[in-house]
Specification:
This is Helix-turn-helix transcriptional regulator. The model has no long low-confidence stretch (mean pLDDT 94). The protein is globular. The chain is mainly alpha-helical. The longest helix is centred in the N-terminal third of the chain and has 20 residues.
């Protein structure tokens, strides 16, 4: 596997984080656009994080968690 290809475990973790972000966003009754605005990120970033096609940087997770008023750890899978 090339060095730039993430492992299956990493890909699965990305998807799991995305599910948590989407669930928290829906619980907060926010659209992707609304969350993006509140978190100071682009809608494309939120979409990619939720779909698991982009690894969420730690600072993004903190911004997203702050916008959703949840602890950052709640966006990480068990």
């Amino acid at each position: 596997m090339p060095a730039d290809q993430p492992s299956a475990r990493v890909l699965a973790y990305r998807v799991a984080v995305g599910v948590r972000v989407r669930e928290a966003r829906e619980w907060a009754n926010l659209t992707q656009e609304g969350l993006a605005h509140a978190a100071g990120l682009s809608r494309d970033t939120i979409v990619r994080v939720e779909l698991g096609t982009r690894t969420a940087r730690l600072d993004w997770l903190v911004q997203i968690a702050d916008a959703l008023d949840v602890p950052p750890a709640s966006l990480l899978p068990d």
